[in-house]
Amino acid sequence: MQYNNCYVSAWIKSETKIYFIPINLNFLIIYDEQKNKTNTFVIEKENFYQNNLYSKCLKYKDKIIFIPAHAKHFLFFDINTHEMEYINIPKSKREHPEYGYFSGGIIKNDSLYAVGYMYPGIVKIDLISQAIMVIDINTQKIKQLGYSFAVCNNRDIVLASKKGTMLEFCIDDSCVQITDYSKFCFNGITGYKEILWTIDNGKKCIIECDRKTKNTSIIYLQEYALYLESATYGFIEYVEGVLFLFPNKNAPIITYNISEKKFSLIWVNIFDKIGFSVIAVNVDKEKVYVADYDKKMTYQINSKDYSMYEYEIPMNKMKIINTLANMEKVPMREDFIKLEEFIVYVVNLKIERQKNGKR
User: Fold this and answer.
1) In the sheet where 156-161 sits, what is the strand order?
2) What are the start-end ranges of the E strands in 90-181?
3) How confident is the prediction for the chain on average, in pLDDT?
């Protein structure tokens, strides 16, 4: 029996099981860590060949909610019945779906708030009635479509644009506050309590913003700034007192211990200077899960000692083949050869079954 590793985008852990969607397939997979087994489900309403369908996922009661990046629907998955429900994304004139819809969200007061990357506004879904609305937060005022977001104090959504504008939206009272930091260029944002951190790749520094006073301070990357010349660091995460800066192509992860004011590097292979090409990041307590696009691998990093290993999720190839072969429709495209080899096999198997009069 053959097993393959995979790299994941939307990911969440509940008890002993991990629910995730691979970056390059329209599958929802449940991985049982104790049994070391996976269970595979096809997301039939989404295109099979599309990359990065969902950006993040959240748990609400007995459901896992997947927030769309390039998918056309919000996906609700019942962890007991394994049933799937879909909710359409409200149409917008400025959504730019080719770059992705949403970068994440938050659940509060029985409602989901999905925050746009290229979507102009916050989509609110009442998780009891499933009523949906778009909250207009004047995203045109942040000067440029395409922004990162962070959640502070489990109530405030903070958007940061690449043009240095920060927009804060309070869920409790729907208050919107916009602050101009035009001398900076924001790439990624994270927060803890009233402090926000973002990356300025041009100035090769971390910017620390106090939400109360609006004061900013600069944390220069010192000798590690050279890595920002060869790669863009577009992800930043606060994890247990440590800031993690993630590169987009073959560069080390840069960490900054806030209390010790100390930088360090994490390599895939320090001897050969093999770095990371990060496409997605998920955090579970002190553990950081990094999806590497080039290596098609997920890595687990401990924020305490920076130990790292390849996080192996078994992918039963034959089980996936059988799952696809029994679908009522298998998409046909000329560029299937770009996908995994077993995809081509599945298409041929489906054609053969149709010739023989089988479904």
Assistant:
1) 147-152, 156-161, 165-170, 176-180
2) 102-108, 111-116, 122-126, 132-135, 147-152, 156-161, 165-170, 176-180
3) 81
